Amino acid sequence: MEYTGVGAAGPAASTADKTAADYYFDSYAHHGIHEEMLKDTVRTESYRDAILKNPHLLKDKVVMDVGCGTGILSMFCAQAGAKHVYAMECSAIVEQARKIAAANGFGDKITFIQGKVEEVELPDGVEQIDVIVSEWMGYFLLYESMLNTVIFARDKWLAPDGVILPDKAIMYIAALEDGEYKREKLDFWNNVYGFDMSCIRELALVEPLVDTVDPAAVVTEAFPFKVLDMKTVTVDDLTFSADFALKVTRDDYCHGFVSWFDCEFSSCHKPVAFSTGPDAPYTHWKSTVLYANAGEIMVSTGEIITGTVSVAPNATNPRDLDIALSFEHKGRYQETVETMEYKMR
Amino acid sequence: MEYTGVGAAGPAASTADKTAADYYFDSYAHHGIHEEMLKDTVRTESYRDAILKNPHLLKDKVVMDVGCGTGILSMFCAQAGAKHVYAMECSAIVEQARKIAAANGFGDKITFIQGKVEEVELPDGVEQIDVIVSEWMGYFLLYESMLNTVIFARDKWLAPDGVILPDKAIMYIAALEDGEYKREKLDFWNNVYGFDMSCIRELALVEPLVDTVDPAAVVTEAFPFKVLDMKTVTVDDLTFSADFALKVTRDDYCHGFVSWFDCEFSSCHKPVAFSTGPDAPYTHWKSTVLYANAGEIMVSTGEIITGTVSVAPNATNPRDLDIALSFEHKGRYQETVETMEYKMR
After folding, report:
1. Residue B312's pLDDT is what?
2. B257 pLDDT higher than 90
């Protein structure tokens, strides 16, 4: 079933005319990013289990899939007995999603709406949704800010006793020993074939690095610095400051911090959850590394690194993130106090 | 030295206003892609050797660096004794290049011009260039079509006896055994968590795949299907058809083709060259794989696979490539004739 929706953002007339927003959505038009997400079995199997193993949540219910991509979650919901699924997707991948749903016999169960959730009305006189399913999480959880759209959908359509899958996210931080890689990524710029390119080091330093982190590199306990409950979170909550205290677990050096998130589907019969942390199996989100400017910070078992992390959407491009991190460490040999301002673009 | 040039494409007023062209250049504004290219030692050391080991080509000469990026090649030229270097760069990375040149004492030797080569005039009354240096090569050599710009610069400014570094490129093709990866990349779409997503397989099939190819996967001799001489190549030459004949070197299966290029700096005292082929050390260009639609094609030693490869810039976005490949194989057990049309986006 096709429905373009009021105010649907159709494809721009020519490549030359597209805007930044179009390019954000168009990056999802290509199958490569969907291949990566689908092959992330931690991600996809968690959603599959949350849906297929909980037919009591889906049966005869009206579902909205926010940012449906290839439509996999919508099809899981249809399989689990949903009465109907409204699958919202801005990027051109929705054309493939329509073909896929039809090829799998879900043509009548899933209505694809190409457009911005904030701009469309639902067809069929539908004004209330029983279940929202969405895979909205970005790097550092909040990069790309798709959560704002989920919040909008919840506030506009979700029934008072409606279900959100997933419904909880927790952001963690820990300190990191990463000297060798920091040299490869940052100090590299100090001497490039004999040339001083350190001005680029300064740019690289303030750019959060998304990469797989070896759990052996983590030198403190993890601290959960932010909890988001999808039932109650507001857009204002996504601009926040949170204090943290990290207990050092071995004598080592600290080069910065690593952040990740856990996700929960707590309304499930048996709660489904997954972690993107260094200790957990690989996910396409990996972890987010924030290097300190300070050099080799000597940390000893039992010492505490305290600090504050502040997160806000960037004023110019709200899908980008400004992350400030200040920390203090009084160690056996030295004291370090530093404030860093990162830009996630 | 700063010079914005006539018609320089300055940064657009806001993120929302940028066009496709701006996004092409902006992808080069971020240091990440420059880090990758600089860390490609095959690439960068080849240029370094071609320049620094050949001062007779550079000393007291006026040089143009087309697409200078961080300015590394311009600085090599200045080091080698160039009289002056005009470094052309459209993306915002040029701001870093200016700082870098200044930090390394080349502020007076290198003039950075932010703008499209096709739109600027050179300052200082300069109308002729002695040397053009450019790292213009893209995936499959021609993806991103920066060669058009080098040709323009050559025709507008290069002295009749001027030097171009590099001056020669050769494109190769061979046949490939790649069954396992083809299944991972293509057949994957036939069954995704039980769903038929084969419409995406059809898209993936016609998209050239840039990846590292194991030399052991190559099942024929390599065939050089296109030679480009930078001194004489025209834009029209970049739309072409070329026949090939591939001699099978072992009994195996063929799943498609692999293409790569070699580059030469033949004006050097001792010619410098590098290959991006499967047999050669890693480069960031990797190789380009073109899968056949046909399944397991049984090839036997000594047999010949003949065909034609046609390349043209895409009409809608000239930086993209349309690649047609038709081939014929009369084997011991079967005959295969196929035409594929790939789109490199």
Report:
1. 97
2. yes
Q: Which long-range contacts (CB under 8 A, 24 or more apart) does B60-63 make?
A: B61/B130, B61/B131, B62/B86, B62/B126, B62/B128, B62/B129, B62/B130, B62/B131, B63/B129, B63/B130, B63/B131, B63/B132, B63/B133
* H or E segment and range at residue A76: helix A72-79
Residue of B30, B44, B317 lying closest to A193 (CB–CB): B44
Query: CATH number for the domain including A119?
Result: 3.40.50.150
Which residues in chain B (73-102) have CB-CB distances under 8 A to chain A? 75-76, 96, 99-100
Q: Considering only CB atoms, which chain B residues are within 8 Å of A17?
A: 19
Q: Which residue has the tokens 């660096």?
A: B65
Whether residue B145 is found in the same domain as residue B106: yes
- Do A254 and A126 belong to one domain? no
CA dist B168 and A216 (Å) reads 48
Inter-chain contacts counted by CB atoms under 8 A, chains A and B:
96
Task: Answer yes or no: do A190 and A157 share one domain.
Answer: no
CATH number for position B316? 2.70.160.11
Cβ neighbors of B207 (< 8 A, separation 6 or more) are: B342, B343, B344, B345
State the residue range of the domain holding B186: 169-344
- State pLDDT tens for residues B79-126: 999 999 999 999 999 999 999 999 999 999 999 999 999 999 999 899
Name the domain boundary from A117, A134, A165.
Answer: A165
Cβ within 8 Å of A, B 235-264? none
In this prediction, residues B146-162 reach a mean pLDDT of 97
Based on the fold, state whether residues A146 and A274 are members of the same structural domain. Answer: no
Rounded to two decimals, what is the model's pTM?
Answer: 0.91
Let me know if residue A303 belongs to a domain: yes
- Is A183 part of the contact surface with chain B (CB cutoff 8 Å)? no
**Domain stop point among A143, A165, A187:** A165
Nearest-angstrom CA–CA distance, A196 and B283: 24
Judgement on whether residues B48 and B127 belong to the same structural domain of the protein = yes
Q: Is residue A3 a part of any domain in this protein?
A: no
B110 lies in the same domain as B224: no
Element (H, E) at B327: strand B321-330
DSSP letter for A277, please: S
Q: Are residues A86 and A140 both part of a single domain? A: yes
The CA dihedral of A65, A69, A72, A77, to the nearest 10 degrees, is 10
**Residue B175: which residues within 8 A CB-CB, separation 6 or more?**
B218, B219, B220, B246, B248, B254, B256, B257, B258, B299, B305
Contact B311, B238 (CB under 8 A): yes
Mean pLDDT in order along chain A per 10 residues (345 residues): 34 42 70 96 98 98 98 98 97 96 98 96 95 97 91 98 98 96 95 98 96 97 98 97 98 98 97 97 98 95 98 90 98 96 94
Let me know whether A88 and A191 are in one domain.
no
**Domain assignment present for A277:** yes
Mean pLDDT estimate for chain B: 92
CA distances from B340 to A285, B90, B171, B225, B290 (A): 35, 35, 19, 17, 9
Domain total in chain A = 2
A204 token code pair? 């690289």
Q: For residue B6, is it within any domain?
A: no
Residues A243 and A272 sit within 8 Å (Cβ to Cβ): no
pLDDT tens digits for B113-145? 999 999 999 998 999 999 999 999 999 999 986
